[in-house]
Amino acid sequence: MNVRILFLLYFFWEVPFGPINWLVGVGIIDFKQNHFGVQLRIFEIALYVPIDL
Q1: Which run of H or of E encompasses 35?
Q2: Contacts of 52 (CB under 8 A, 6+ apart)
Q3: Confidence (pTM)
Q4: What long-range pairs does 29-32 form, CB within 8 A, spacing at least 24?
């Protein structure tokens, strides 16, 4: 029996400071298949200038 389970969760918070935006994000990716599992934890911080088209 081949059982696969995938779970993804991601939260982010974005704060504008004039023309620059600050982004903080945390997340988790959890993949399981039979008796094997992979888990990735994500933490990111970004400063960027959005481009409005």
Answers
A1: none
A2: none
A3: 0.67
A4: 30/5, 30/6, 31/4, 31/5, 31/6, 31/7, 32/3, 32/4, 32/5
CA angle 52, 16, 26 (to 5 degrees): 100
Residue 49 DSSP label: -
Distance CA 32, CA 35 (A): 7
Looking at the chain, the whole-number percentage of residues with pLDDT higher than 70 is 98
In which order are the strands placed within the sheet that holds 4-17? 4-17, 20-33, 36-48
29-49 pLDDT, tens digit per residue, is: 999 998 899 999 999 999 999
